């Protein structure tokens, strides 16, 4: 079992990851409404990945004999004034998540809970990838600026992104 302290903190992170999923699903719907189906697809994959993050944490708690507690998911924004603003909001949010993951690692370390620290290492690495990917999107969008053909081409490219399940069943967590 993990400590009550860690159980509470991991359950809070489960909620954060579901909130992230909800945010990206909202962004996906927003872009679909705007006719930007590639951007909508990119955020839909993001939504699916975030659900996997929640499941991975939940499955870890279950595997350790701890209690999963799903909490209400807070409201998210439903529209963005520009494409780049959605990605800037995404990056800002991912940086918050990175800080939360780091806090979880610190807590696990302070309790000498090496199994939890090891499980969390996956999230540490994932956050580096996520921040890098979103920063790359922002850089690309800055280069494109208001060029309609650039946006059109990027939208077509993002339509190709596919979701790869994390295999986060209890056995595979
Ligand atoms: Fe699961 Fe994007 O943090």
Question: For the CA atoms, what is the radius of gyration?
Answer: 17 Å
**Count of DSSP helices?**
5
Name of the CATH class: Mainly Alpha
The chain-level structural class is mainly alpha
Which molecules other than protein and nucleic acid are bound? MU-OXO-diiron
Number of strands: 0
Low-confidence stretches: none
Estimate the helix proportion, in percent.
Answer: over 70%
Q: What's the helix-strand series?
A: HHHHH
Task: Report the span from N to C terminus.
Answer: 16 Å
Task: Report on the biggest sheet.
Answer: none
Please tell me the CATH architecture by its name. Answer: Up-down Bundle
**Total tally of structural domains:** 1
Q: Per CATH, what is the topology?
A: Ferritin
From the structure above, extract its key features.
73% helix; Ferritin; 173 residues; mainly alpha; binds MU-OXO-diiron
What does the model show?
- It is a single chain.
- It is built from five helices and no strands.
- It has 173 residues and is mainly α.
- α1 runs antiparallel to α2 and α3 packs antiparallel against α4 (114-144).
- The longest helix is centred in the last third of the chain and has 31 residues, at 114-144.
- The structure holds MU-OXO-diiron.
- MU-OXO-diiron is lined by residues 17, 20, 50, 53, 94, 97, 130.
- Residues 17, 20, 50, 53, 94, 97, 130 line the site of MU-OXO-diiron.
């Amino acid at each position: 079992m993990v400590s009550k302290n860690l159980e509470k903190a991991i359950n809070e992170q489960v909620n954060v990851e579901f909130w992230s999923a909800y945010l990206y699903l909202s962004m996906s719907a927003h872009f679909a409404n705007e006719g930007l189906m590639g951007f909508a697809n990119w955020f839909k994959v993001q939504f699916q990945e975030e659900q996997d993050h929640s499941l991975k944490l939940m499955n870890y708690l279950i595997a350790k004999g701890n209690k999963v507690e799903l909490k209400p998911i807070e409201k998210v924004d439903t529209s963005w004034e520009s494409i780049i603003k959605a990605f800037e909001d995404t990056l800002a949010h991912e940086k918050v998540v990175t800080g939360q993951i780091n806090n979880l690692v610190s807590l696990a370390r302070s309790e000498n809970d090496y199994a939890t620290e090891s499980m969390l290492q996956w999230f540490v690495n994932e956050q580096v990838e996520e921040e890098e990917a979103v920063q790359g999107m922002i850089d690309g969008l800055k280069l494109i600026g208001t060029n309609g053909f650039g946006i059109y081409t990027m939208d077509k490219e993002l339509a190709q992104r596919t979701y790869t399940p994390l295999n986060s069943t209890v056995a595979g967590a």
